[in-house]
Give the backbone structure.
Amino acid sequence: MEHPKEYDRETGETGWAAGACIAMPAELFHRAGGFDEAFFLYCEDVDLSWRLRLLGYRLLYRPACPVYHSKRLDSSGKFVPEKTQRYHSAVSDLILAHKWSNPALEESLLAFYRTCGDGELRRADAEFKEKRKRGLLPGPIDPEHKVSRFSDGRYAKHRFFL
């Protein structure tokens, strides 16, 4: 199944490159600062992509180059994340919103995680708040949102939903 994020069908340009398969010169990876260790799992690819775009680089998606990235689906084809995936994804979503200067999304996510019935999301809420309290979060960047794009709680506009 193709990733649902939007991309330009003629040029292949996209807002971020999925970390399941990224190809770039090592020098460019290092110039952008590599993967930010603040992200244990999830969103590290979005963060790196946006930092590359801040440096003036374009990101290209090539749908003719398929890569298999295992995901668990239910009988209707909907993605079914494991508990650890829900937890780490939630923590990373919060870190991404914080780092990329989106306090409204950060607070909206915190409010949802704190009040939802999912223990993994409530645990992510507590973990993020502890990181913030201890000064372990990266400093905010891109306050004018030159490259960061949050759309409906995602990191890019989606062409379809799973």
Observations:
- The chain has a mean pLDDT of 90.
- Residues 100 and 141 are 5 Å apart (CA to CA).
- The first strand starts at residue 13 and ends at 14.
- The chain has one domain: 13-133.
